[in-house]
Backbone:
C-alpha cells in the first residue's frame, strides 16, 4: 500500500494568521505523534499570502481514519478552525515518485 498525504488549503480570518499558526502547530504536534503518522508541513502561497497549504504523510488510509476518528480530533481541529475563513481538506494517494537525491 502506498503512502497517503492529507492536505488542506487554509485561509485564516484577517488578523488571525498568528493564532492560526499557533493552533495548527499544536494540532499537528499531536497528530504526528499518532500511530502511522509522518511529517507535517505548512506552506504559504507566495502569490496569495493569505492562503496556507498543509501536507501530512501517513503510512495508510487506516492511519488517517484512526486520526480522524480519535476522540481528540474534533476538539483539536475546532481550535484551529476558530481562526479560519475557508478550509478545503482532501486525502491524496502517491502514484509516482521521481528523484530523491541530495
Residues:
Amino acid at each position: 500500500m502506498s503512502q497517503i498525504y492529507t492536505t488542506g488549503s487554509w485561509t485564516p480570518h484577517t488578523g488571525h494568521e498568528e493564532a492560526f499558526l499557533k493552533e495548527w502547530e499544536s494540532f499537528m504536534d499531536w497528530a504526528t505523534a499518532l500511530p502511522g503518522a509522518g511529517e507535517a508541513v505548512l506552506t504559504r502561497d507566495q502569490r496569495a499570502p493569505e492562503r496556507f497549504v498543509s501536507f501530512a504523510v501517513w503510512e495508510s488510509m487506516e492511519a488517517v481514519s484512526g486520526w480522524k476518528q480519535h476522540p481528540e480530533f474534533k476538539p483539536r481541529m475546532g481550535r484551529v478552525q476558530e481562526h479560519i475563513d475557508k478550509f478545503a481538506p482532501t486525502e491524496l494517494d502517491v502514484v509516482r515518485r521521481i528523484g530523491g537525491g541530495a
In short: The two ends are 26 Å apart (CA to CA). The helical segments are 17-31, 61-69, 73-81.
